């Protein structure tokens, strides 16, 4: 029996009394992935990206482990909710226009001490000030650095379009704007190198593309390490007691951690290891988050139909954004239908071994987005479900 077949047998036994659709997290794999992230971080703390987990119980579990400290959140409303729930170090990774949230933040000493907001433009400070509604608490601020690799004088750009702050001078100018503005405290710098951390460099069947990605990423790492160090020096001239410099992502943990200027690493997807993280030379994780759909039809030889399945991930549309049929091995989508809204046909000789009511296990393309489809996660240890915990959705929250 292969390891994957053994996993299928375990998951089927663990959920035998549960009707599908059902989502699970294999805690043995989750904990092993957490240990691997800590090993790769080389002693620097890992801030957990909540968008990749979206379950308070699992955030608490990983933050209780040595090597993890703090949360990187994705909306201001989520940040405030987490802070009210007892998480005392929440870095909002994206600028917000949530005026009601800023009013709440500026009026509550506990929230203001726990939450750091993201800024890359003085106009965002204006928005926060206008939203205070009389709240006088000091708002903790982090500046985001644009990590994109620019070539040919800027005519070629590789990397996500995030912050407009690219040079040390640009970041230092906004740092001075924060420092001289009453009611704000600059405490950190963040830089997410998505073109390194979030792009696989070993795509099956595409050796030339994979080599090109590796060459690009090596050049991007060198350029960013030099520029990030210069940015940190420039900002420390304005704010000598800067608390943290955050960088990285699951795919670049060990490379980012090697930079002296970086004090902490961000990672989250590496806990669940969705399908988009199969194509990396830098690490190998264990799939920990899966969902099962039930077989409801057998339309013909070599075909079964499962209920639901149309759970595409965000990003540029493409086949790599679809969940992948994972267990049993050997199933694939019908290219004429793909993953359907309410039913999904699956092809392959192994389909003939599946009966009505059997489960087909899938892996989502990305990590936390799976939790927007399910109210609960069943936590599996060995071949048993040992706990059922709510996702953000199960607690009544869909922050985006």
What's the structural blueprint in terms of helices and strands?
Elements lengths: L2 H12 L7 E5 H15 L4 E4 L6 H8 L4 E6 L2 H9 L5 E3 L6 H9 L1 H6 E5 L2 H10 L7 E6 L4 E3 L4 E3 L9 H12 L4 E8 L2 H4 L9 H32 L5 E4 L5 H5 L6 E4 L1 H4 L16 E12 L2 E5 L16 E4 L4 E2 L9 E5 L11 E5 L12 E6 L2 E7 L10
Parallel strand pairs: 1-18, 2-3, 2-11, 3-4, 4-5, 5-6, 6-9, 9-10, 10-11
Antiparallel strand pairs: 1-12, 7-8, 12-13, 12-17, 13-16, 14-17, 15-16, 18-19
Structure keywords:
400 residues, alpha/beta, nine-stranded mixed β-sheet, globular
Provide a quick synopsis of the model.
This protein has helices at residues 3-14, 27-41, 56-63, 76-84, 99-107, 109-114, 122-131, 168-179, 194-197, 207-238, 253-257, 269-272, and strands spanning 22-26, 46-49, 68-73, 90-92, 115-119, 139-144, 149-151, 156-158, 184-191, 244-247, 264-267, 289-300, 303-307, 324-327, 332-333, 343-347, 359-363, 376-381, 384-390.
